[in-house]
Fold this protein.
Amino acid sequence: MPVEDINTKAWKVYGQRQLARAYIPPIPDQLAWAPWEGVGPGAEVLGDITGRRVLDMGSGAGHHAIRLVQAHGARVTGIELSPSQHERAVTGHADVQGVQFVQGDVAEYLAGAEPFDAAYAIGTLGFFRGACSCRSSRKGCSARCRRTLPPRWSVGRSGPVQSGTGVCGSGSSAEEPAQQAA
C-alpha cells in the first residue's frame, strides 16, 4: 500500500475516534507550530492578514483556522483530506463566520482556487502528494499551484524535530525570492 494511502487511512481512523469522543481541540492562544508549547512564531509570520484570504493546508479539526479568524480577522479556507477530520471541523465550528472548511486534496483544490494572500501548513507538508508538494519553495510547486499560493511561499521547521511546516506571508512582491524559514 502506498504511503499516501496509509496516511489517509490513519487520519480517517484518528478522526473517527475523536468524533466518537466528541473531542474538538480548544482554540489556541497562538498558532501551535509544534507539539511543544511556545515553539515557533505566531501568526505575525503571515503578515497583516486582517480581511485577507488565508489558506490552511491540512486544517484538521479547524482550531488554527478559527484562531486566525477570531484573533486576526482573516478569511480562512481550511482544506483537509480526511473526511472525518473535515467533519470535526465543520461540526465543531459551524457557527463561526469567516471560515470555510473544504474536504479534498490540496493540489486538486488549488487547481481551481482563486489566489490566497497567505497560506500555512502545520506539520502536513510531508504528506502532500503530487503536483503541489511545495517541499522546498514556491518554485517547487507546479504552475497550477503557484498561481494560487502567495509570492513568498516558504517552507520551514518549527523546531529541531518538527518538519513539514510551511508558511507564507502577504505583503511581499512577486519578484522577491522564496525564503527558507529556520
The chain has one domain: 3-168. The helical segments are 3-21, 63-72, 83-92, 106-112, 143-146. DSSP finds five helices and six strands in the chain. The domain at 3-168 is CATH 3.40.50.150 (Rossmann fold).
